[in-house]
Amino acid sequence: MPLPTVAIIGRPNVGKSTLFNRLVGKRLALVDDMPGVTRDRREGEAQLLGCAFRVIDTAGFEDEDPASLPGRMRVQTESAVREADVALFLVDARAGVTPLDEEIARWLRSAGTPVVLAANKAEGRAGEAGVIEAMALGLGEPVPISAEHGEGVGDLSEALQPWIDLPEEEAEDEDEDSPDAPLKLAIVGRPNAGKSTLINKLLGENRLLTGPEAGITRDSIAVPWEWQAADGTARAVRLIDTAGMRKKAKVQDKLEKLSVADALRAVDFAEVVVLLLDATKGLEVQDLKIADRVLQEGRALILALNKWDVAEDASRLFNGVKAALDEGLAQVKGVPLLTVSAATGKGLDTLMQVAFETRDAWSRRITTGQLNRWFERAIEANPPPAPGGKRIKPRYVTQNKTRPPSFVLFGTRVDMLPVSYQRYLINSLRREFDFGAVPVRLTMRAPRNPFDRDREQRG
């Protein structure tokens, strides 16, 4: 049974994201003193009084032209409230009731969604007058709370209980290695590459805020979804939209720094990362830096050229980007490069198919027997060098983890193997076991020489 949903609504800067973080028990939403930080609606799971529910943090409700950015944000907020089981209307007790609060209250009364009114920042005497004033909104007695300090959350839980009172079911441990587990797919890239548009196209709805303005997305937003594969099976996906990542030197604004840090955390959370490129701008140095960061974190990487429907001289562009990738990402050859159009949907099914195949490779485990048969052939075909006349004796190799595939090579003096020979072994591993372009890690483990240790002690 789906969890009941609580949508937090209110004008900008009343503390909605702070309350959201308090309810979910994690610092998921970006918080800043500047109004209007939240733009897309963010979801999380909360537990109060033994009840589990889904909570939605919405953008600040503003009275603006529907075509403007604040106007489009308001449309997202209204949609979240209509879908919710209960709306949690937050006002600022210290600022008192404003005309915009009164407008929101009028809209809520006509929306048909049950409403719980809460007066935030009510700690101390400074908020007492605002709590009393909020009663005039006609939405019942306000619950005084302090989202920042956690005061009044128990009273808020009791006020919400009629709409969230479903027994919390025991959560089963999700086996992340299972091919049936949801694919955690993050979409990253420079600002205005079309990340939110692509996710909206996959979902078939305007779930994320989009527009011509660069940098609309600030929080990393995770959205559950099911992809219908060509064979008719439904595959669970967790789509993660992220803020655009510009060159570090250009990121001066505090809020943009928070957004970029949030996007990098989303990469750590993901299994497969799609780096979305703007086909009208080609490949830039910043794209290679983002790709390198993804690979350093051990995530599986796919590159997608977006806006392919309006790209000029497509064949030359594709070959140029591919050549630049081979040169710029020397540590991993053959990263999948796909062409898509978030506007028309072209290539998106192929993108999802490749994403699942890439995760399969990223999660692959090889038996020790298979590994050592490969290992014997690789050593025989290309014996290790003897730097300084010291013979290196590789003994055996084993896989110590997956996601990404990681291996340990044991033997005498294997820690002296040149980087070029290590790269030979990794590339041979890729070919033999069809790892494709996912990161493969190889660690050398050589036993310490007791005679060397004795000499060190005598010295």
From TrEMBL:
<keyword id="KW-0690">Ribosome biogenesis</keyword>
<comment type="subunit">
    <text>Associates with the 50S ribosomal subunit.</text>
</comment>
<feature type="binding site">
    <location>
        <begin position="189"/>
        <end position="196"/>
    </location>
    <ligand>
        <name>GTP 2</name>
    </ligand>
</feature>
<dbReference type="Pfam" id="PF01926">
    <property type="entry name" value="MMR_HSR1"/>
</dbReference>
<keyword id="KW-0677">Repeat</keyword>
<protein>
    <recommendedName>
        <fullName>GTPase Der</fullName>
    </recommendedName>
</protein>
<dbReference type="InterPro" id="IPR006073">
    <property type="entry name" value="GTP-bd"/>
</dbReference>
<feature type="binding site">
    <location>
        <begin position="120"/>
        <end position="123"/>
    </location>
    <ligand>
        <name>GTP 1</name>
    </ligand>
</feature>
<feature type="binding site">
    <location>
        <begin position="306"/>
        <end position="309"/>
    </location>
    <ligand>
        <name>GTP 2</name>
    </ligand>
</feature>
<keyword id="KW-0378">Hydrolase</keyword>
<keyword id="KW-0547">Nucleotide-binding</keyword>
<comment type="function">
    <text>GTPase that plays an essential role in the late steps of ribosome biogenesis.</text>
</comment>
<dbReference type="InterPro" id="IPR032859">
    <property type="entry name" value="KH_dom-like"/>
</dbReference>
<feature type="domain" description="EngA-type G">
    <location>
        <begin position="183"/>
        <end position="363"/>
    </location>
</feature>
<keyword id="KW-0342">GTP-binding</keyword>
<dbReference type="Pfam" id="PF14714">
    <property type="entry name" value="KH_dom-like"/>
</dbReference>
<feature type="domain" description="EngA-type G">
    <location>
        <begin position="4"/>
        <end position="168"/>
    </location>
</feature>
<dbReference type="InterPro" id="IPR031166">
    <property type="entry name" value="G_ENGA"/>
</dbReference>
<dbReference type="InterPro" id="IPR015946">
    <property type="entry name" value="KH_dom-like_a/b"/>
</dbReference>
<dbReference type="InterPro" id="IPR016484">
    <property type="entry name" value="GTPase_Der"/>
</dbReference>
<feature type="binding site">
    <location>
        <begin position="10"/>
        <end position="17"/>
    </location>
    <ligand>
        <name>GTP 1</name>
    </ligand>
</feature>
<feature type="binding site">
    <location>
        <begin position="241"/>
        <end position="245"/>
    </location>
    <ligand>
        <name>GTP 2</name>
    </ligand>
</feature>
<feature type="binding site">
    <location>
        <begin position="57"/>
        <end position="61"/>
    </location>
    <ligand>
        <name>GTP 1</name>
    </ligand>
</feature>
<dbReference type="InterPro" id="IPR027417">
    <property type="entry name" value="P-loop_NTPase"/>
</dbReference>
<comment type="similarity">
    <text>Belongs to the TRAFAC class TrmE-Era-EngA-EngB-Septin-like GTPase superfamily. EngA (Der) GTPase family.</text>
</comment>
<dbReference type="GO" id="GO:0016787">
    <property type="term" value="F:hydrolase activity"/>
</dbReference>
<dbReference type="InterPro" id="IPR005225">
    <property type="entry name" value="Small_GTP-bd"/>
</dbReference>
